[in-house]
Design brief:
Layout lengths: L19 H5 L7 E5 L7 E8 L4 E6 L5 E14 L2 E5 L4 E4 L4 E18 L26
Antiparallel strand pairs: 1-2, 2-7, 3-7, 4-5, 4-6, 4-7
Length: 143
């Protein structure tokens, strides 16, 4: 499977990706991102990822965004600071911003959908030097 990106930029409801083949046999899918939401002006990011059997996403912390994960196929384990969470198809998992986690795919791999608020793009802004202000007069001094 390849990453399917919609080039359409209109704001009409539409089918974006058929996940049935991935759900039916995620072991046949390529590793990594198999689909991502595209298009300008969107407020949401979403990805379908496939993690082959025995693969791992190392421990990391997302400082800024809450993430929702929907397990589509396979199984795995989410490791958090509170312990291990077994993952199976149909589970909806909330990963709050600031949480530390890692993810391990089970014997049949793990396919899942993630969604979160869209990250703002990098912005270059002109440097605004602070205006020079004379020091404030001390108490008891004349203006």
């Amino acid at each position: 499977m390849t990453v399917g990106q919609s080039e359409e930029s209109h704001d009409a409801p539409r089918v974006l990706y058929d996940m049935q083949p991935l759900i039916a046999d995620n072991r046949a899918a390529s590793a990594g991102v198999v689909w991502r939401l595209a298009g300008s002006g969107r407020q949401l990011d979403a990805n379908v990822l496939n993690l082959p059997a025995g693969q791992r996403i190392d421990t990391h912390t997302e400082p800024d965004l809450d993430v929702l994960v929907v397990v589509l196929a396979g199984s795995g384990t989410l490791t958090t600071t509170d312990g291990l969470l077994p993952l199976t198809p149909g589970m909806l998992v909330w990963l709050p911003h600031g949480s530390t986690r890692s993810l391990d795919a089970g014997a049949q791999g793990l396919s899942y959908l993630t969604t979160h608020r869209r990250r703002p793009g990098m912005q270059i802004r002109p440097h605004r030097p602070q205006a020079h202000r004379p020091p404030a007069p001390s108490a008891g001094s004349a203006p």
